Amino acid sequence: MRLLNQSGIGGGAAQYAEMDQLVEAQTVAQSGWNYTSSSSYITLSFWIRASVAQAYTVVMYTDDSTTRHYPFTVTLSANTWTKVEKAIPGYSGITINNDNGRGVRLTFIAAYGTNYTSNSGTLNSWNTTGNGLNRFPDVPTTWATTTNATFDLTGVQLEVGSIATEFEHKSYAEELRLCQRYFTYIPSGTVFAGRGASSSAYLYSYSTPVPLRASPTVAIDNDLAHGTFSIRRYRDSAGVSDSTNTPTTNSTYFQPETCMISLSQDGFTAVDDRSATLFMSGGAITLSAEI
Length: 291
Description:
This protein is mainly beta and 291 residues long. It has helices at residues 25-29, 172-180, and strands at residues 2-5, 16-24, 41-50, 54-62, 68-76, 82-89, 102-112, 127-128, 149-160, 183-186, 191-196, 202-207, 217-221, 230-235, 239-243, 260-265, 275-282, 284-288.
């Protein structure tokens, strides 16, 4: 992963550049890490490189109940890959719920303006995050004011214990399925069986590759597939009817741990309870279940 400061974002108070990795709460809660005990550790390891030599800050956040954060710094020479291994102890003030919400957030900071920094925290220790904006420490602005500065990150791994092991390589197929829990899309060319739900709307369903984390946010996208988004309805002698409206989903019809997504779309000429065939002739429907 790379951050590129192509135009030089500057050192303004509201400027920042970071990479974030979100970890589902139940993944952490069931990992075996006793996060409320200072004698139990979780280890973060990664490779990092930057074109500007300076100290960079990495922060681990917990997001349930009272939010906590654990910051530490990494001092880099310019354009040199550096392996970092950081053992982070548990803390009695941490809460991580055993659910599908956000449990841990890893933030790798290239630059922060003063709107996002504070001198009230302590490095290598758990701190109370407060309003979520104030983080420690103040971050140097050299990277922020350097045009075409780069910030690279790879091989990020979080594991229970105080010792980092070799990075676990997974196949492309396995990584894709893990990602599809949080995001997938329905491409153009898809054919659906539909049912009229009013004088203008049809209900139809789609089977996702894997169960989504939660009921998804639905949007349309013209860049993921051929042409502009449109769905055409075919029904007996009534001929065709087209709609470019964005479909919606309802959490009532979402069943966890299944692959079925129910969608509703208006903008057609429809008849309640009348069956039809729907064909997506362009664009794509995106399904986002990000944390």
